[in-house]
Specification:
The complex is a heterodimer of chains A (about 425) and B (about 400).
Chain A (H helix, E strand, L loop, with lengths): L1 H7 L19 H9 L4 H26 L8 H7 L6 H12 L8 H18 L8 H16 L4 H21 L3 H31 L13 H28 L3 H16 L2 H11 L12 H27 L2 H9 L4 H31 L11 H10 L8 H29 L5
Helix pairs in contact in A: 5-10, 5-16, 6-7, 7-8, 8-9, 10-11, 10-13, 10-16, 11-13, 12-13, 13-15, 14-15, 15-17
Chain B lengths: L1 H5 L10 H4 L1 H33 L30 H34 L4 H15 L3 H14 L4 H6 L11 E3 L2 E4 L1 E4 L3 H29 L5 H19 L4 E4 L2 E3 L2 E3 L2 E3 L1 H28 L2 H9 L4 H31 L11 H13 L2 H30 L5
Antiparallel strand pairs in B: 1-2, 2-7, 3-4, 5-6
Helix pairs in contact in B: 4-5, 4-10, 4-13, 5-10, 6-10, 8-9, 10-12, 11-12, 12-14, 13-14
Classes of the chains: A mainly alpha (about 425), B mainly alpha (about 400).
């Protein structure tokens, strides 16, 4: 064989080639740059373009920040002091951005409410916290309401008593007939609210004294209002959304039709029209003479809005569960609510967590729309500042500040959702 | 007798079965729910009737025929302040549709570009695209709209600066960006333009015919015809020829400066541009995420299998990856378009006269008919959303996996 090989091939190298040098910088920074930034002609062009964009942005931003002014009383003073940003406006108006027109001697109240929010949320967000802390979570709405709106402690305590009474009614009847117990407790709450609450509040107000200075809803604004609207609507919308999703998946035709109608209607109209309903229309639909707080009306409508979106997300989770889970629950002899509570919901909610957090972030951002119905959320606060002759013409500083706040809170929420997704991922991938 | 006790004694229907028998319980629950809902709606309507009667108002839509008395600066169809509220509503609706269509087109372009760039293997481009997506997604759309409006008013030069030469027009003196709006050329149709348009329509029909023929040819012989180049040629060459032969009947009339402002040309208001830009950039960030998720959802094995069959990379993208990615991309895309249309109602904040600005704001405040206006506003938006989702679902059915 070797002969034929030598004969048929014209050239065979007999000496060894000198070893070539190792390829230049196949490790380290140069390799990284070559692979990630200049791997092809198109990539090189894109890299240069991106560098140009970054350079332009930095060229504008850096001197703007570097020459910024923090001490001035008007825009013209700012312009004299420096060529850059005029952050003096934020230094002067920060109380309005955070609290709206809340009385300045009472700032400790919203701050305390905000600080207390963390122990209240901890048992829900992190499962390492002892579950007894949930008790504080249940009390938190009443404490928060009292701290922010003020007035006598009697009102919140009376409402709390009503809830406790309803719970006692439920506990005594639940052993005999769960459905009747539920209806009875709802009836107890309604009766308490309509007939007893007022007297109880007055009586308790006598006991507790005048309490804190009352703050009108119109004076609540800024990030405080955003937080109130966002957190209250989110916590109310989740249970409502789950019920709507269950209704939409239900075999009961009429209930299904009602839920589908509600969800599709709410999802089909812009939030701003619902806010119009809250601000001008809702009073028409209530018995003559009923007036209640604009913040409460807005919360009701935003809750309905968020619930419809949440319902669709939860429905996705329900639909993604294998049929076998429902059948397994049935074969264990669990009734509908037991199956939902113990088998279906824990899995369906786990699947839908990213969607739920997305709805929450969307809702949180959408609370800015209340500035259109002239409430003083952060964007609403910007308007009077722009109209002020001292600060007329300022733009980036104000909106940038508000945008930064929203970016930080929304971004951290989405990071939390990633953490939760990983924590709850129990299947093997 | 003992045999009889085995079977259930037929006692007929008892009332307690309505609660304890699962066969009847569902009916009971549904009827109770229906009664509750009907009573609730009845209560609301009753309250509304009482309240309206007390306020001395009635419920009718006659106000739509009354003279509106307010001006709308951005309009597609003829309108002046002597026309009716109904006409103003129609102008508003068309403005809503205008910004929605423009926004849907640009947000798709921005979103697809950014979604693809986020998957780029170029580190710096990928990071820039990420900054864009996270930045726009995490800040309220209303803030973007108001901020863009502020920039549109503040940054561009005043029209007077064009006279003194401090500012100049762009694109061969055809576009002027001022702080009062953007002036673009107006398309002028003179006699004979119908022929050019007719030729254009004919060539579009010819393109569809050619594509059909090319597909048939490929299925029959396996030969691939250059569809793209022929289509482009068919689209442009006959129309340009017709335009030249007829002596340029379709022309552009540039805006030019006269007196204190620009005349001729089309004046696009700041509010329209700001709303359009802000909505496209904001929705584009969401579209980018969907596009990225859709492309990532196609498993790598698909493109590898196609490559091992010897298909070229560009055709792998067109024939293997994109059709599968579309199935993931289309459903959230529909809801993005719906959200953009609904978010266009925020035009109210910057004074763009869309449906919310006319019917939901000025007409509502002038006539004092809050109930009618808000109900009508909601109904129109509901119809818009439902039609978008109907069209979207129809398209989705055409691209989704056909299981046989």
């Amino acid at each position: 064989m070797s002969d034929t090989h030598a004969n048929t091939i014209a050239f065979v190298r007999e000496t060894q080639l000198p070893p070539s040098p190792p390829p230049a910088a196949e490790t380290g920074a140069i390799k990284w740059v070559r692979e990630n930034l200049f791997s092809s002609i198109l990539n090189s062009i894109l890299t240069l373009l991106s560098l140009l964009v970054i350079f332009m942005v930095l060229k504008g931003m850096v001197p703007w920040f570097w020459n910024s002014t923090w001490n001035a009383n008007s825009l013209s003073e700012c312009r004299e002091a420096g060529t850059g940003a005029c952050f003096a406006v934020i230094r002067e108006r920060w109380p309005q951005f955070f609290f709206g027109f809340y009385p300045s001697t009472e700032y400790w109240r919203p701050l305390l409410t905000f600080v207390l929010l963390f122990p209240a949320l901890a048992p829900i967000l992190f499962n390492k916290v002892p579950q007894k802390a949930l008790f504080f979570t249940l009390l938190y709405p009443f404490i928060g309401y009292w701290l922010i709106w003020g007035g006598s402690l009697g009102g919140p305590v009376a409402t709390l008593l009503g809830v406790v009474v309803a719970y006692c009614v439920y506990r005594t009847l639940v052993a005999q007939a769960p459905v009747i117990a539920l209806l009875a407790s709802v009836a107890a709450v309604v009766i308490w609210m309509l007939f007893i609450n007022g007297f109880a509040a007055d009586a308790l107000a006598g006991v507790f004294g005048a309490g804190l200075e009352e703050v009108d809803s119109r004076n609540i604004g800024g990030f405080l209002l955003t937080m109130i609207l966002g957190i209250v609507s989110i916590s109310l919308a989740l249970p409502l959304g789950i019920l709507l999703a269950l209704g939409r998946q239900s075999d009961l035709l009429i209930i299904k039709a009602i839920c589908v109608g509600f969800i599709e209607f709410i999802r089909g109209v812009p939030l701003i029209t619902l806010l119009f309903v809250a601000s001008v229309l809702l009073s028409y639909f209530l018995p003559p003479g009923t007036t209640f707080d604009l913040v409460l009306r807005v919360i009701i409508l935003i809750t309905m809005f968020a619930a419809a979106y949440l319902a669709e997300v939860v429905r996705g989770g329900l639909a993604a569960l294998p049929r076998g889970q429902y059948e397994a629950a049935d074969s264990l002899g669990l009734d509908y609510w037991q199956a939902i509570r113990l088998i279906i919901m824990p899995q369906a909610l786990k699947i839908s967590i990213p969607g739920i957090v997305n709805v929450f972030i969307g809702l949180y951002k959408d609370t800015t729309l209340v500035s259109i119905i002239s409430m003083y959320d952060p964007l609403g606060v910007v308007q009077p500042i722009l109209a002020d002759s001292d600060w007329n013409g300022i733009l980036w500083e104000l909106y940038g500040f508000v945008a930064l706040f929203f970016f930080i809170s929304c971004y951290s929420m989405s990071q939390y959702s990633r953490y939760l997704e990983n924590k709850l991922r129990t299947d093997h991938r | 007798m003992t045999a009889m006790t085995d079977t259930q004694p037929d006692e007929g229907f008892r009332l307690s079965q309505l609660i304890y028998d699962t066969r009847y319980r569902s009916i009971t629950i549904q009827i109770i729910a229906l009664i509750c809902v009907l009573v609730g709606i009845g209560w609301l309507v009753n309250n509304a009737v009482t309240n309206l009667a007390e306020a001395g108002q009635d419920f009718n839509f006659d106000f739509l025929g009354n003279v509106a008395g307010y001006d709308i600066n951005q309009k597609i169809i003829d309108y002046d302040s002597q026309m009716t509220h109904g006409r103003a509503t129609l102008v508003g609706l068309l403005n809503t549709l205008l910004v929605a269509v423009l926004g849907c087109i640009t947000c798709t372009i921005i979103g697809v570009t950014m979604g693809v760039l986020r998957l780029s293997n170029n580190w710096i481009v990928q990071k820039l695209a990420t900054v864009y997506v996270e930045g726009f997604r995490n800040v309220p759309v209303l803030l973007w709209i108001v901020l863009t409006m502020g920039v549109m008013i503040k940054i561009p030069p005043d029209p007077r600066q064009f006279r003194s030469g401090d500012a100049s027009m762009m694109l061969w003196d055809s576009v002027a960006i001022t702080n009062r709006g953007v002036y673009v050329p107006r398309i002028m149709y003179e006699s004979g333009s119908a022929i050019v348009v007719g030729v254009l329509l004919l060539s579009i029909a010819a393109i569809f015919g050619f594509r059909h023929y090319a597909r048939k040819q490929q299925e029959a012989t396996g030969k691939i015809l250059p569809v793209l180049w022929v289509s482009l040629g068919l689209l442009f060459i006959p129309a340009i020829l017709a335009q030249v032969v007829m002596g340029s009947p379709i022309g552009l009339q540039n805006p030019y400066f006269r007196g204190f402002n620009f005349t001729d040309g089309v004046h696009l208001r700041n509010s329209l541009i700001a709303l359009w830009l802000a909505l496209s950039l904001y929705t584009g960030a969401f579209v980018a995420e969907n596009v990225r998720a859709g492309i990532l959802a196609v498993s790598k094995g698909q493109s590898e299998a196609a490559a091992s069959l010897g298909i070229r990379p560009s055709r792998i993208m067109n024939l293997v990856v994109l059709p599968q990615a579309m199935r993931v991309i289309v459903p959230p895309m529909i809801s993005n378009y719906m959200n953009l249309t609904k978010n266009s109602s925020l035009a109210l904040a910057i004074g763009y006269m869309d449906l919310t600005g006319t019917l939901g704001n000025i007409t509502r405040n002038q006539t004092g008919r809050e109930m009618e206006c808000v109900i009508m506003l909601m109904a129109i938006y509901l119809c818009l959303s439902l039609s978008i989702s109907a069209v979207g679902n129809w398209y989705n059915n055409s691209v989704k996996l056909k299981e046989r």
